[in-house]
Request: fold
Amino acid sequence: MKKFMMLHFGFEQPTPDVMEKWNQWFAAVAERTVEHGGFMNCREISHDGTVDLPFGADSITGYSIIEAEDMAEAERLAEGNPFIKSLRIYEVRNH
Reply:
């Protein structure tokens, strides 16, 4: 099995209905889940300096690491994810 990281983009204050949908999705992928997490307080460091970033529509708000045979299966496991703006899936390389 390969590992895939799903990055969740976009933030809105969650309603009980949205939280229920998240909990349903977490339960649906539980057997393939390695780890889930969320973010708060963001700072970007670049050659131009450091800035605090707001938590909004373009923010990465959380991640899920799952196991799947390939990208197609990872995408199937992502179905039903109640993301706000988008969801990106990356295959994790192990060194």
Observations:
- The longest strand covers residues 60-68.
